[in-house]
Design goal:
Layout lengths: L14 H13 L7 E3 L4 H16 L6 E6 L6 H13 L5 E5 L9 H19 L4 E3 L4 H13 L4 H4 L5 E3 L9 E3 L7 H10 L16 H7 L1 H6 L4 H29 E4 L2 E5 H6 L2 H16 L7 H13 L6 E3 L2 E5 L11 E6 L13
Helix pairs in contact: 1-2, 2-7, 5-8, 5-10, 10-12
């Protein structure tokens, strides 16, 4: 495999350190046996070698390796097969999963990410694997924070990735993603590979200025001169993760006392929603809309704010629609919270041509 060596001498991660990281993610719910996502890059190769040695040292089943051929480069199939051959030589079960069909002309990064996770999620589900290990590092944590900040994300978007989290696509609720290396730097992983005499693939997309993450990576030297190191940015994301957890707790408590779910509808107390801190009220309203509509993504924030303002001011009138739901005053027979009870019901299915959201 081709690759470059770390520019600065940094202490390589040790087997003992990695074992402690694995104990930590197991306490958080990561299960074994598991699959590992491997691209052939330095991060994923280091994860694979570390996790394989950890498994063998404890007489555990070795990881199953999943490699995605995204088909975005002329030689992507060749690279995937090269990685698979190398991994197979280590005696590991390996599967190359191919992203077939037409590829997007825009939003390539997000589309490729979704395709990767969908392919790996489908394989894990079909083969009884409940946990996928990925090689996200502290550098990825910091980059994700800055990319989302540039898009105007709120607390949820800026909060840190978790060491163990639900699968990032809807429809895979039984699966988890584990990130044991989330607190480690890329340079430590590359120092580990250098000690082993390993080389790795460098994906040219990582330096292609067409992609936002590649442009961001090119600015790291400048950011670090300003004191914005990956560790400090990741720490800020961690602070926001704790804030998000507190907001989620308050949201659950408000929903428990001010709403009731019933099939394809929900009842809510407009007074308690309105009197809550705005962030909690907005989160609660979004959660109700998601649960009733069956959609996993949040409503558009501007539309959600408009609806919440109408509820607070008593300006719902004959009702509104948002996120596949109709929101209006509940009839007397369903006025669980008195005359200010809201009825949120699922809209009848609408055609794609007419669209599904409005005010």
């Amino acid at each position: 495999m081709r690759g470059r060596q770390p520019a600065a001498a940094e202490k390589a991660i040790s087997a003992a350190e990695f074992a402690a990281l694995m104990e930590a993610v197991e306490r958080l719910g990561a299960s074994w046996p598991a699959a590992a996502a491997v691209s052939g890059g330095g991060d994923s190769l280091a994860l694979l070698l570390l996790i394989e040695e950890w498994a063998r040292s404890g007489s555990r089943r070795v990881p199953i390796v999943l490699i995605v051929d995204h088909g975005l480069k002329p030689h992507s199939r060749r690279d995937a097969l090269e990685i698979a051959s190398r991994v197979g030589d280590r005696g590991l079960e390996t599967h190359v999963l191919s992203w077939r069909g037409r590829k997007p002309a825009a939003n390539i990064e997000s589309s490729a990410r979704e395709a990767r996770y969908r392919l790996m999620g489908n394989w894990c589900r079909a083969n009884g694997i409940r946990c996928l290990f990925v090689a996200h590092t502290i550098d990825d944590q910091a980059e994700t924070f800055l990319l989302r900040l540039s898009r105007g994300s709120g607390v949820d978007g800026l909060a840190a990735m978790a060491a163990v989290s639900p699968f990032p696509l809807p429809g895979f609720e039984e699966l988890l993603v584990a990130r044991p290396l989330l607190g480690e730097s890329r340079s430590r992983l590359r120092a580990f590979l250098k000690l082993r005499g390993e080389t790795w693939l460098e994906d040219e997309m990582n330096s292609d200025p067409r992609f936002a993450r590649a442009r961001l990576r090119a600015t790291w030297p400048t950011l670090e001169k300003l004191g914005l190191s990956a560790a400090r940015i990741a720490a800020a994301a961690g602070h926001l993760a704790r804030a998000r957890a507190a907001l989620e707790q308050d949201t659950r408590e408000l929903l428990a006392r001010a709403s009731q779910k019933g099939g394809e509808y929900a009842l809510a107390d407009a007074v308690q929603l309105s009197d809550a801190p705005e962030e909690i009220g907005l989160r609660s309203l979004a959660r109700l809309l998601m649960e009733v509509s069956g959609r996993h993504q949040r409503p558009r924030f501007e539309s959600l704010e408009s609806l919440f303002a109408a509820i607070r001011s008593g300006a719902l009138g004959g009702g509104r629609t948002l996120h596949g739901c109709r929101i209006g005053r509940a009839p007397k027979r369903r006025a669980l919270f008195g005359p200010d009870t809201l009825l949120i019901s699922r809209e009848a299915r609408r055609s794609r041509r007419t669209g599904g959201e409005g005010n």
